[in-house]
User: Which sequence fits this backbone?
């Protein structure tokens, strides 16, 4: 239905593929920050399990707009804070916040020898090869270093399946859910490196308000690849078709609250 209006973006670390071509995902820092309170919860739960007291270097891989990187800098004021992100918009937003972020792909990152903490929050779901990267990073980190990661575990939820269904009806093929593993797989993968491993999952029940809040939430994340692939008119029509399906899957309560369940998977590995 939208085929005529699909833009053919070139190359990049994709969120979606259309007719075998990878499509860049662009980010809108302001839209992403619209739910910053809810989105920050898993970050707090993740870094609460990091025990480092005086790390020399703390790295935020996929730092986004830098609001959470700033919390790392505040917790460890003596550390050099390294922040990278592949999105120019996100790097600009982080830099505007005083974070010395640079534009780079996590695939190309290697730990400096003094790296004691690595945090990567809500990023690796965009990096299909992260199962190979995790052991490589751990092998290069010094003894005692901690690597903390969190990925969404909700690719089978209606917020994602409805997008994929509608995309398929529209001739768009979105990235599959295989890019994120189950908790036990992360535990095995990380433990195989000899690290001490702590893996868990949490399903948050976010109380959202306002019209079509789930559509608004995914508009700044899961819908980015669709946004990039369609022109304005086609994207508006995609959203208009998606909205009632999401409303059925996530009905508003009489008081206006919409409960949005969101499963997340966490792992912290400490090098021994
Ligand atoms: C959902 S945001 C999370 C941002 C931040 N970590 C947070 O928790 O708020 C995902 C971020 O990952 C970045 N990203 C995605 N793929 C990446 C890659 N291959 N290398 C570096 N950054 C990447 C995106 O640009 C985006 O800023």
Assistant:
């Amino acid at each position: 239905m939208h085929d005529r209006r699909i833009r053919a973006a070139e190359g990049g670390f994709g969120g979606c593929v259309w007719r075998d071509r990878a499509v860049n995902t662009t980010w809108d820092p302001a839209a992403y920050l619209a739910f910053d309170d809810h989105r920050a919860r898993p970050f707090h739960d993740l870094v609460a399990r990091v025990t480092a007291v005086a790390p020399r270097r703390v790295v935020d891989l996929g730092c986004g707009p830098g609001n959470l990187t700033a919390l790392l800098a505040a917790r460890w004021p003596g550390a050099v804070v390294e922040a990278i992100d592949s999105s120019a918009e996100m790097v600009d937003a982080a830099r505007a916040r005083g974070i010395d972020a640079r534009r780079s792909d996590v695939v190309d990152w290697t730990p400096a020898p003094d790296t004691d903490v690595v945090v990567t929050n809500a990023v690796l779901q965009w990096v299909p090869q992260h199962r190979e990267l995790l052991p490589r990073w751990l092998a290069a980190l010094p003894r005692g270093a901690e690597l903390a990661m969190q990925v969404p575990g909700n690719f089978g939820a209606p917020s994602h399946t409805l997008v994929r269904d509608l995309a398929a009806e529209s001739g768009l093929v979105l990235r599959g859910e295989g890019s994120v593993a189950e908790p036990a797989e992360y535990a095995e993968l990380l433990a195989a490196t000899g690290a001490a491993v702590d893996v868990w999952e949490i399903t948050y029940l976010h109380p959202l308000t306002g019209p079509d809040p789930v559509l608004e939430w995914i508009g700044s994340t899961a819908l980015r690849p669709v946004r990039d692939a369609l022109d304005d008119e086609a994207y508006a029509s995609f959203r208009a078709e998606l909205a009632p399906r999401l409303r059925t899957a996530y009905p508003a309560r009489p008081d206006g609250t919409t409960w949005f369940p969101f499963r997340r998977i966490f792992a912290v590995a400490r090098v021994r």
